[in-house]
Amino acid sequence: MVRILNFLFVALAGLSCFAVNHIAEKTRLADIALNATHHQIVLEQQSTKLLQAQWQTVADPQRIQQLAQAHLGLTDTPTVALASLELLPRRGDAAADNPIRAASMVTQSPAPTTVLHLTAARSGN
User: Fold this and answer.
1) How far apart, in whole angstroms, are the C-alpha atoms of residue 76 and residue 113?
2) What does the alpha-carbon distance between residue 38 and residue 11 come to, in Å, rounded to a whole number?
3) What DSSP line would sit under the chain, residue for residue?
4) Distance between CA 91 and CA 106 in Å, rounded?
5) How confident is the prediction along the chain (125 residues), in pLDDT tens digits per residue?
6) Distance CA 40, CA 49 (A)
7) pTM of the prediction?
């Protein structure tokens, strides 16, 4: 009986060693994956900082204005301030540079092709 118990305890100790070794190997692989992920996070943070610095130079309003003037031919025209409502032209007054005084357009609506009839629904009670 003692030999059987000793054999079972030795077998249990061996299986425990295999289980601990298996868990240690999984832990080692998980640690490698975690280190690789941490390294990728650091690289992404560095590239994000670089992109933010580049964005600040690209989105500079003076740079955008220079590019618009150089490539699109846009100029910075000053805005006209309206001092009072009396400076606005009155309705019906013709502008000196616009010979058209009034324009109207008459359109005919197409005749309906289908007629819908609506009826009240009755309850089944």
Assistant:
1) 54
2) 40
3) -HHHHHHHHHHHHHHHHHHHHHHHHHHHHHHHHHHHHHHHHHHHHHHHHHHHHHHHHHT-HHHHHHHIIIII----PPPPP---GGGSPPTTPPPTT----------PPPPPS------PPPP--
4) 21
5) 889 999 999 999 999 999 999 999 999 999 999 999 999 999 999 999 999 989 988 888 888 888 888 888 777 666 666 666 676 667 766 555 555 554 455 555 555 555 555 555 555 54
6) 14
7) 0.43
Contact indicator for 77, 88 with CB cutoff of 8 Å: no
The answer for residues whose C-beta is within 8 angstroms of residue 92's C-beta and 6 or more apart is none
The alpha helices in 59-118, defined as continuous H runs, are: 61-67
